[in-house]
Design a protein that fits this description.
The chain has about 400 residues and is α/β, with parallel strands linked by helices. The protein has two domains: about 110 residues; about 250 residues, NAD(P)-binding Rossmann-like Domain (Rossmann fold, 3-Layer(aba) Sandwich), CATH 3.40.50. It has eleven helices and 14 strands. The protein starts with a helix and ends in a 10-residue tail after the last strand.
């Protein structure tokens, strides 16, 4: 096995163990809507951490690796030699060790050496009642557009740690800088191509190894094109299908596996579109593929409810921008829409604002507010859709 393959195998094992440990360290709240209070669980795999993890249980243990300090708490050395065993076996074994430690020390462990895998440790932080998503970790796909940016900002303002993901490049790099200005310790940018299963798996692993696991996943990545059915280019349709359907499926599958592994529930919010209940001419490829994405979300709500996972949808209409972040969808289809209606960009935005009942301009922030309604669990709801469209009668049922 090459060095890179060996490192990837170690990373995969650590990413499999870490969510189980994080789930076991979460405190039960007694609240049916928010049954667990999670921790931020960081991993150390520096050479010093690996040396410490290998000998932490002996009398001649080396100094604590940075940023840990001796005396903070006694470490709990976990035996994870059989890390390829079924998850339920691993969880049962680790639960027994953590329970015994808690009984002896009167509290759950905060430093957990894992032998050749490294060291896990709980990041200390005071509860923030004003931030309902404090210590919760969210991953957002397609984050570098208007809706994605709005959602990331909303999640950060409510206290979440946010893994902003998108295709690698300047847009993602700029997003990371902008988001980190207000919450540098709670933002990480992760390149993910949602059409590539390995890229999705690696991206999830990176988020897990940064903060211990995930609690919220927003399935937002999507693309559009405009073709009448009589002229539609099949390759263009397949590109949309690859992102909007297969990308959503790969993200939902990876999320489901993670939430089941962590065993503390979770929230999935799928960014759908008003085109699902109310498609438009020329939008056959977009409407059909987003309808498939929407349906996958509904099915996920049925399959994952037994694990305490809620899956809901938000359906926006005509979000052109949020701050300096422009909608990738409207950058693609806007010119055609303007030409078809004889409008410039400002007039096109006014056209879409004027067609809804409230005469509202829909923004990324509005979509974020709908996402936050579900992510903060305001009601016991799963499998539902919030329209964010200013009121479109032809997009009923509401």
């Amino acid at each position: 096995m090459t060095a890179d393959a060996s490192e990837r195998a170690r990373e995969n094992r650590l990413a499999r163990i870490t969510p189980i440990v994080r789930g076991l360290l979460a405190e039960k709240t007694g609240d049916q809507d928010i049954p667990y209070q999670p921790v931020i669980l960081k991993s150390l795999t520096t050479p010093e951490a690996l040396v410490f993890a290998a000998s932490a249980g002996s009398a001649e243990a080396p100094p604590y690796p940075a940023p840990l300090a001796e005396g903070r708490t006694s470490p709990l050395v976990l035996d994870v030699e059989d890390s390829d065993a079924p998850p339920e076996h691993i969880r049962k074994h680790l639960a027994a060790e953590i329970a015994a430690y808690s009984q002896q020390h009167g509290a759950k462990p905060q430093i957990l050496p894992l032998g050749e895998l490294g060291v896990l440790y709980v990041e200390q932080s005071d509860p923030r009642p004003d931030m309902p998503l404090w210590n919760r970790v969210a991953l957002v796909t397609g984050a570098a557009g208007a809706i994605g940016y709005g959602i990331c900002r909303g999640l950060l303002e409510k206290g979440a740690h946010v893994a902003a993901t998108d295709l690698p490049g300047p847009k993602l790099d700029t997003l990371a800088v902008d988001l980190a200005r207000d919450a540098p310790q709670r933002v990480t940018a992760i390149p993910i191509d949602v059409t590539d299963a390995d890229s999705v798996s690696r991206g999830f692993n990176k988020a897990i190894l940064t903060w211990g696991g995930l609690d919220i996943v927003v399935v937002n990545a999507g693309i559009a094109t405009v073709w009448p059915l009589s002229q539609i280019d099949i390759e263009a349709f397949r590109r949309l299908e690859k992102v909007n359907v297969e990308g959503a499926l790969l993200t939902l599958s990876e999320t489901a596996r993670h939430f089941i592994l962590q065993a503390t529930g979770g929230d999935i919010i799928v960014v759908s579109t008003k085109n699902v209940p109310s498609p438009g001419a020329g939008f056959g490829a977009y409407s059909a593929t987003k309808a498939a994405c929407h349906q996958l979300g509904r099915i996920a709500s049925i399959e994952l409810a037994q694990y305490g996972v809620r899956v809901n949808m938000v359906a926006p209409d005509a979000v052109f921008a949020e701050g300096k972040y422009r909608s990738g969808l409207w950058e693609q289809i806007g010119p055609e829409r303007m030409q078809a209606r004889g409008l410039d960009e400002a007039q096109l935005q006014e056209y879409y604002r004027g067609r809804n009942l409230l005469k509202s301009r829909i923004t990324g922030r509005h979509v974020a507010n709908a996402v936050l309604f579900f992510a903060t669990r305001q009601t016991p709801t799963t499998g539902a859709t919030i329209p964010v469209d200013g009121g479109l009668p032809d997009a009923t049922p509401r």
